[in-house]
Predict the structure of Succinate--CoA ligase [ADP-forming] subunit beta.
Amino acid sequence: MNIHEYQAKEILNGFGIPVPRGRVALTSDQVERAAKEFGGRCVIKAQIYAGGRGKAGGVKLVHHPEQAQEFGKELFGKRLITPQTGPEGLKVRRILVEEAVEIAREFYLSITLDRNTSRYSLIASAEGGVEIEEVAKKSPEKIHVLPIDPFTGLRPYQARKIALALGLTGTVCEDCVELIQNLYRCCLEKDCSLVEINPLTVTKAGWLLAMDAKINFDDNAMFRHREYPDMMDYSQLDPLEINAGKYDLSYIKLSGNIGCMVNGAGLAMATLDVLKEFGGEPANFLDVGGGSTREKVAEAFKIILEDSDVKGVFVNIFGGIMRCDVIAQGIIEAASEVKCTLPIVVRMDGSKVEEGKQLLAESGLNVQTADTLGDGAQRIVSMLG
Ligand code: ADP
Ligand code: MG
């Protein structure tokens, strides 16, 4: 789960990490008032669930409250497109107004879960800021990566090693050692899959400040943090993904035109692979899970059909815990409700498969059934021709 920069900064601040003074605004008048509070000169920052805002025109230094208000007007409601948003961009509905800080140096610092080593890794670079992707690509040796042993945790000497690698000395170095340890504490206590400060800055006055902040929470730990759902900004999510979340379905939008409904993540991946093998392009990844009900199948099917990119649907379900006749009923219910005329191919096997096939055959829908995954994939691809 994602949160906004201003929320991430509040959290970091709670762990003793210094951040610039700032206020969140929901209207351009509020932007103006906040700018006045900071003496006119301030930085206006669009809050969206993506980075790369600086280069996309979503972060601007202004000098007067009127200029702040003007830029606020321009930003609110605008779709900001950055390399992380996809081509549609994300709509700006909240703006962070922050005191403008005189920056001497910009670093990169993050802690993230490394799935290869199954542990947190601390990542740091002396060349942080908006060009970090370029640094990672062109001079990867400038990025320091330190895997953290979950048993011993992050040791102070390791934090010092990183602070020194960033070229820090004296009190700023000691401050940085403390900051890194606080960042790790935050990561553990808040169950983060990522905490990123880019840039971490040393100001001209010689203070360390987290100038940008990004936090991702581990969805599997949501039950330990009842406050997290309230922090979510639904306006930043794909409406279909929100709907899928409500019904506990794993749904991920992809770029093709074949909607896929599958049970089990492994089978879903195999389905996408086989579709591709036969020249098809999946429009999504949707896993309805094991013990689904008819209602859940119907909701999943509707979510797929709501995506206007979908030109055909491929259902690939192994009826073990879930009976094939129940799946068929769910599909028929949903397809009839939304008057679906798109071609549908259903490959199912397992309990009550004959009953399921019969229900589909009598449904009046534009549906074919298949006995194997390969056969089903070929059929839907050729039906879309
Ligand atoms: P993004 O990573 O989405 O581009 P950032 O918050 O990192 O957005 O802002 C981009 C750049 O703007 C930063 O690298 C920094 O140089 C500058 N910046 C951001 N906030 C401030 C601030 N409060 N004062 C001065 N400069 C800032
Ligand atoms: Mg940044």
